[in-house]
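Researcher: I'd like a structural prediction for the single chain below. Treat it as a standalone chain; there are no partners to consider.
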Amino acid sequence: MPPSGSAAPTSRVALVTGAGRGIGRAVALRLSEAGVPVALTARSTAELEETAHACAGPTLVIPADLTADGAVEELFGRVESDWAAVTDLVLNAGAGVSARVEKTSDEDWQRMLDLNLTAPFRCLRRALPAMRAGGYGRVVAVASIAGRVGEPYISAYTASKHGLIGLVRSAAAEVARDGVTVNAVCPGYVDTPMTDATIRGIVEATGRTLEQAREALARKQPTGRLVTPQEVADVVLLCLGNASITGQAINVDGGAVQS
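Model: Treating it as a single chain, here is the predicted structure.
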């Protein structure tokens, strides 16, 4: 998968956050199939090892809580020490919480900002100097369609994803002449463990069956089904491979939000 436009470095090094399952795992597998060594990070060592086992090429398994003090520096230091500077950064780690605005606690609000916005900011800040110095870099943040529109009961999550898209746009404008691209991918409801948790929340709150709750989320996409992790990975890989796509927030939502 040679990038178009500016020349790729002799040896690319990818780092995927939230790589233990779902979209992160799908992206890691695709990168590995393309011959790119992939550093994998998430909180669960067992899930990371499952991803590493499924990869076709070299991997580094680095369990980490990216919201912890010093975790980002330790993560990048490990990749640089074992391999080289990160050239392809996929910021996928994230979580959601559901509550009315007036029932959203300070703790839930801060947790969404810490994981969905501050941790990606710290990773991006840490990665950019080496990318700029090398004249090459690709960054893709997995945001959400909730970063494009407001939806009830997920105000903290929505605010964090709106902020993430703003970060992507500003960073892309700064580094566009340095051979570095920064983009966001905005999935709708994806068939992942995170959506399974949302479905369980709907069941608990409404008394619907699991099947009814899943169908309700599937109907939010005009295609009538959940997005697959592989479909999101396709767009992530497109952004990693094209030097003229930067500063974009690309919807992968079955046509729910047209832009």
